[in-house]
């Protein structure tokens, strides 16, 4: 009997061979937004390892939407062409290529994490990596010492919606079969949603509906451009984790609204509105964000993707068996073990004679097992 983790999932015209996704993970290794050999090998490993769905890192829809000088972008046809060879490789090895489209907002123009993970300093300027103009719903810096962002006008918002649409058009041309709009972790669209960062009094602020207006405009415009037979995901911070921030009740409401606008899956993350999304004050427990995915799925009927310290095959299987989510996303666990999916298949009894491995590897490994009894 096939496990739930290795059961196919149909999304519009798309069929995932299993329920394992590799989360977007920024590599900060591009030059002026261009994908290179690092990105090909980084993402290609996960296809060889058997993941059904593989996301790029957040790909900036315009140059000022990058988080750092090393971020990927898709603001020109040349950027799309550089990504096309990656999608071809992923598809050739049985994985579905997915792109996360984003804009960093007030968290743009910052250091790479290993260089400080904060606002740019004289050290970066000396290397020619200058700061750039940042934008946000309100002129509130992310933290002390960060750039004060420009408060976006209605025209700025309309221009950004257009940039998302153009990015989606290029992503389709480049061969991506899933698009995800990044509305989490305090980046631009998340900062519109949250009352912590959105203090506007016009149509894009105030009420929950007003604060969601920018995201709705992006989703509606992208859904109209993105092919009808291809699924659209939205990643959200299910909770901001601040007393004055976005909460889970808000996310349940938002998921229902996004479902009505043609979104297929809600990718349920959390945090990041007032600092790095990956820096928690206390160590979180395994699967700490799964309850968010479960409640959103249960109360709205939309499919959800669970992410966050899901590290074991049995743990992932239980999440699916309990109908807490429909897709299991692994991030840093995939960095630690790019072959996590094929190892999980063995653990759950879904792999016979290394059949889920690439044949170039499976043949060798099966012969070793036959002759020595070792995995």
From TrEMBL:
The protein's required cofactors: FMN
Keywords, sorted A to Z: Flavoprotein, FMN, NADP, Oxidoreductase
Pfam families noted in UniProt: Oxidored_FMN
An MF annotation (GO) of this entry: FMN binding
Gene3D superfamilies given in the database record: Aldolase class I
Domain NADH:flavin oxidoreductase/NADH oxidase N-terminal: 5-348
Signal peptide: none
Entry protein name: NADH:flavin oxidoreductase/NADH oxidase
């Amino acid at each position: 009997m096939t496990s739930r983790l290795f059961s196919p999932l149909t999304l519009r015209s798309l069929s995932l061979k299993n329920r394992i996704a590799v989360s977007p993970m920024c590599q900060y290794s591009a030059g002026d937004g261009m994908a290179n050999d690092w990105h090909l090998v980084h993402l290609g490993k996960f296809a060889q390892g058997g993941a059904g769905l593989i996301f790029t890192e957040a790909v900036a829809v315009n140059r000022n939407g990058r988080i750092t000088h090393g971020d990927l972008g898709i603001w020109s046809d040349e950027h799309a062409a550089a990504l096309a060879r990656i999608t071809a490789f992923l598809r050739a090895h049985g994985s579905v290529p997915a792109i996360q489209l984003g804009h960093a907002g007030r968290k743009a123009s910052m250091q790479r994490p290993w260089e400080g993970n904060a606002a740019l300093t004289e050290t970066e300027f000396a290397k020619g990596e200058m700061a750039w103009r940042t934008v946000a719903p309100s002129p509130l810096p992310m933290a002390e010492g960060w750039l004060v962002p420009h408060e976006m006008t209605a025209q700025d918002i309309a221009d950004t919606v257009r940039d998302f649409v153009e990015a989606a058009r290029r992503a389709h041309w480049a061969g991506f079969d899933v698009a995800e709009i990044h509305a989490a972790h305090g980046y631009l669209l998340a900062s519109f949603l949250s009352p912590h960062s959105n203090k506007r009094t016009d149509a894009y602020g105030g009420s929950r509906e007003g604060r969601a207006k920018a995201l709705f405009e992006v989703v509606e415009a992208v859904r109209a451009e993105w092919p009808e037979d291809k699924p659209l995901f939205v990643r959200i911070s299910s909770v901001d984790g601040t007393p004055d921030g976005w909460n889970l009740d808000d996310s349940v409401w938002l998921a229902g609204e996004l479902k009505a606008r043609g979104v297929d899956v809600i990718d349920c993350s959390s945090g990041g509105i007032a600092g790095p999304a990956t820096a928690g004050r206390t160590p979180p427990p395994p699967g700490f964000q799964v309850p968010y995915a479960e409640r959103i799925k249960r109360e709205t009927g939309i499919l959800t993707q669970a992410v966050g310290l899901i590290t074991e095959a049995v743990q992932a299987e239980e999440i699916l068996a309990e109908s807490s989510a429909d897709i299991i996303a692994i991030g840093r666990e995939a960095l630690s073990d790019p072959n996590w999916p094929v190892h999980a298949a063995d653990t759950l009894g879904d792999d016979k004679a290394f059949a889920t491995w690439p044949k170039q590897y499976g043949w060798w490994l099966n012969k070793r097992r036959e002759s020595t009894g070792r995995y």
